[in-house]
């Protein structure tokens, strides 16, 4: 399919793309230098270590996101639990990710360095679930079978704004408890029962009912700063989960990176992937005018150039683009991608944007189809991905704003750029 991508545009696509300038975005740095030590301090808090019983079998849920320092954090958590006399093991808590198969989910963890050899605890993968809770409306809340058989459950996850809904609690421990720990069965059940726009209230409700039925010990929330570095580590006891996660969520929104422009004609993203964001590229960064709460930045055309290797063909989020490249298209594992799309119940997430033969042609098509804007005056921004935002490229038309913004610093002269090779 699309072996020879050639799209003939009236007037052609042989015009010159505007020159680009490399720009540094100067965010605040909140990096924790020793993440392992931070984890161990948190586990040593009285209310946390008192929840761990000597000899107990403890299931640690780890997700599919590319969380900064996740292997270091999990290893330190395992070591802390063993020092308290517990017997921890790891289980994938990632819903339908990895195509909803055991092999792929265990493989995703291995790709992040979360293996028995690296972290010191067995990784037990299964897609079997039990149903500890049936909600008032009949919705079943599923739970990983191995986790349900353990004496206690701990979840470790990054807390951050979600890519599709707004609430006091969005993406983090509560979502992992309900969607992630429920495997593909639980993800499909909850997505099928509720519109995603209501997850800000429905997922906490499901989690509250789960807490009454399962032996959840505590969660470990990790917050990252604008440089994709671990900035906050906090172990949260079950009794404080909802209050403390909401506070971490607020802090995550304050610390996360952004593109320091409100309006962009063409936004070019070099790579997307599930380890970068649940949406492949995070609409908290790229904007999404079709979703309330995601209107900024106002992006007229979105161009995606490639998939990461770590995403293993999962192109979830690619449908948000206006134009993609044949290179990206050829890397898509459609069964894996569609497993996420179907579980979300939003089938529009599987629609294919226009694929162009290469990056330059993809950018030219986006420029050509801007309404009332001469391509040579277009406001273009290029980023590596939505986690790496310290350095970006902008077109010459945006340089006045660069000079007027104290957070921005031009670090190159204006130069012609090819979008067929990495510039980062």
Notable traits:
424 residues; alpha/beta; 2 domains; 15 helices; globular
Tell me what the structure shows.
This protein is of the alpha/beta class. It has 2 domains: 162 residues, no CATH class; 221 residues, LarA, N-terminal domain (Rossmann fold, 3-Layer(aba) Sandwich), CATH 3.40.50.11440. It has an 8-stranded mixed beta sheet with strand order 12-11-10-9-13-14-1-15. The longest helix has 15 residues. It is globular and about 70 Å long. The two termini are 30 Å apart. 51% of the residues are buried.
How large a portion of the residues is in β-strands, by DSSP E? 15-25%
Task: Please state the CA-atom Rg, rounded to the nearest Å.
Answer: 22 Å
The H-and-E topology, N to C, reads as: EHHEHEHHEEHEHHHEEHEHEEHHEHEEHE
Report the helical percentage: 25-40%
| Total number of helices | 15
Name the CATH superfamily assignment of the largest domain: LarA, N-terminal domain
Please tell me what the overall shape is: globular
CATH T-level topology of the largest domain: Rossmann fold
Strands, helices and their partners?
Blueprint: E1 20-25, H1 35-43, H2 46-49, E2 57-62, H3 70-83, E3 87-92, H4 102-111, H5 116-119, E4 129-134, E5 140-144, H6 145-149, E6 152-158, H7 173-180, H8 183-193, H9 199-211, E7 216-224, E8 230-237, H10 241-255, E9 263-269, H11 283-286, E10 298-304, E11 323-325, H12 326-331, H13 334-344, E12 354-356, H14 359-368, E13 380-383, E14 391-395, H15 399-404, E15 408-410
Parallel strand pairs: 2-3, 2-6, 6-7, 9-10, 9-13, 10-11, 11-12
Antiparallel strand pairs: 1-14, 1-15, 4-5, 7-8, 13-14
Helix pairs in contact: 1-3, 7-9
């Amino acid at each position: 399919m699309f072996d020879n991508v050639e799209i003939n545009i009236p007037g052609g696509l042989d015009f010159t793309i505007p020159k680009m300038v490399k720009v540094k975005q100067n965010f605040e740095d909140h990096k924790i230098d020793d993440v392992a030590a931070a984890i161990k301090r948190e586990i040593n808090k009285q209310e946390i270590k008192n929840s761990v019983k000597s000899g107990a079998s403890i299931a640690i849920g780890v997700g599919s996101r590319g969380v900064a320092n996740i292997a270091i954090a999990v290893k330190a958590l395992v070591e802390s639990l063993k020092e308290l006399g517990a017997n921890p093991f790891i289980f994938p808590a990632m819903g339908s990710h990895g195509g909803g198969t055991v092999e792929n989910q265990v493989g995703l963890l291995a790709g992040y360095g979360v293996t028995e050899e690296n972290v010191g605890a067995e990784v037990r993968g299964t897609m079997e679930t039990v149903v500890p809770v049936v909600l008032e409306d009949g919705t079943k809340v599923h739970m990983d079978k191995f986790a349900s058989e353990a004496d206690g459950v701990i979840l470790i996850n990054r807390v951050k704004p979600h890519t599709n809904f707004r609430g006091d609690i969005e993406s983090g421990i509560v979502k992992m408890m309900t969607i992630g720990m429920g495997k593909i069965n639980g993800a499909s059940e909850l997505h099928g029962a509720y519109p995603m726009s209501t997850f800000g209230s429905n997922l906490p409700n499901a989690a509250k009912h789960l807490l009454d039925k399962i032996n959840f010990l505590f969660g470990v929330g990790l917050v990252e700063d604008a440089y994709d570095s671990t900035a906050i580590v906090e172990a949260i006891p079950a009794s404080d989960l909802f209050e403390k996660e909401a506070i971490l969520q607020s802090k995550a929104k304050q610390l996360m990176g952004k593109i320091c422009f409100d309006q962009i004609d063409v936004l070019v993203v070099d790579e997307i992937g599930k380890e970068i964001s649940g949406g492949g590229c995070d609409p908290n960064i790229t904007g999404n005018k079709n979703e309330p709460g995601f209107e900024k930045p106002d992006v007229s055309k979105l161009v995606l150039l490639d998939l990461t290797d770590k995403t293993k063909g999962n192109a979830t989020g690619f449908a948000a683009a206006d134009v993609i490249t044949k290179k990206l298209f050829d890397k898509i594992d459609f069964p894996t991608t569609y497993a996420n799309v179907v579980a979300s119940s939003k089938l529009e997430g599987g629609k294919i944007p226009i694929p162009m033969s290469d990056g330059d042609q993809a950018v030219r098509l986006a420029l050509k189809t801007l309404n009332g804007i001469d391509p040579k005056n277009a406001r273009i921004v290029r980023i590596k991905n939505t986690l790496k935002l310290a350095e970006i490229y902008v077109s010459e038309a945006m340089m006045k704003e660069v000079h007027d913004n104290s957070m921005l610093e031009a670090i190159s002269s204006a130069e012609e750029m090819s979008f067929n090779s990495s510039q980062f």
